[in-house]
Amino acid sequence: MIRLLKLLFFLLLLGFVGLVGFAYLGDLSPQIENVKEPVTLDVD
User: Fold this and answer.
1) How far is CA 41 from CA 35, 37, 38, 44, in A?
2) How far apart are CA 4 and CA 13, in angstroms?
3) What value does the mean pLDDT take over residues 13-34?
4) Reported pTM
5) Can you spell out the DSSP letters for the chain?
6) How would residue 25 be classed by pLDDT, with cut points 50, 70 and 90?
């Protein structure tokens, strides 16, 4: 039973380290695009 808990703790720790590493090193920045669209205004 202790071996199973140690394995579970190790997997949780490994997952947390992977998540933190991805957050710092992963490219999570959004792509920026300029959008230009002509607009016609009805002015009286």
Assistant:
1) 18, 13, 10, 10
2) 14
3) 88
4) 0.55
5) -HHHHHHHHHHHHHHHHHHHHHHHHS--PPP-------------
6) confident
* The residue type at 34: N
Residue with tokens 């920026």: 32
Biggest CA–CA distance in the chain, Å, is 81
